[in-house]
Write a structure and sequence with these properties.
Elements: E1 2-6, E2 9-13, H1 15-26, H2 30-53, E3 58-64, E4 67-72, H3 80-104, H4 108-125, H5 132-144, H6 147-173, H7 178-194
Parallel strand pairs: 2-3
Antiparallel strand pairs: 1-2, 3-4
């Protein structure tokens, strides 16, 4: 693992990140994947800006083949509603970018970038596994409910949303794509692991 320190921020780059980057550079659709990486990076910058605005301490930023993850310091107490803002900042950035790019262009890479941001924003709003929507839901519930009720209510909400997605996925396309089904199974397993 490669570590880089800029001020008080620590950036960690795993081997898998560089491997994925090498594959992207060799692939014919490299520009599309680079735009996808840009959407992911802007998503994480949204979280980072929200963390700075809410004065939430950042422990480190980890780059892997599965994305960029910002890890906050466990030492500092952060009120639940501030964390809801932090968790929803990434998807909000993606949805605003989707609105901007899909609303201003009808062709080319701008539409692709808008579509990637739309999918990334909506995906991360799902209350499943450790996605932003699930983390925001748990924090909001911890503000509204007694502690012992947070995990069961969040888990049941996650399962209800995931089960409700099956007919939606099939209804939109007429059939469920293998990619969507794999993503759904991954989110279901991640949800069971989380709760």
């Amino acid at each position: 693992m490669l570590e880089l320190h800029i001020g008080r921020l620590r950036f960690c780059f795993g081997f898998s990140f560089f491997l994925l980057l090498a594959v992207v550079c060799r692939w014919q659709a490299g520009s599309m994947l680079l735009l996808s990486f840009l959407a992911i990076l802007l998503h994480e910058i949204g979280h980072l800006l929200a963390m700075l605005l809410t004065k939430t301490a950042v422990k480190f930023i980890n780059f892997t083949a599965f994305g960029v993850h910002i890890v906050r310091s466990a030492v500092q107490f952060v009120p639940p509603l501030r964390l809801v803002v932090v968790y929803l900042a990434g998807p909000t950035v993606n949805l605003l970018l989707a609105l901007l790019f899909l609303g201003s262009s009808r062709e080319g890479m701008a539409v692709y970038f808008g579509a990637v941001n739309l999918l990334l924003g909506l995906l991360h709003l799902l209350p499943a596994g450790s996605l932003d929507g699930a983390c925001a839901l748990r924090e909001a519930l911890s503000f509204l409910l007694p502690g012992r009720w947070v995990k069961p209510v969040a888990g049941l909400t996650s399962l209800a949303v995931l089960l409700g997605l099956v007919p939606v996925m099939g209804g939109l396309a007429g059939k469920i794509s293998p990619t969507a089904m794999l993503l759904w199974v991954y989110l279901l397993v991640a949800t069971f692991r989380e709760y």
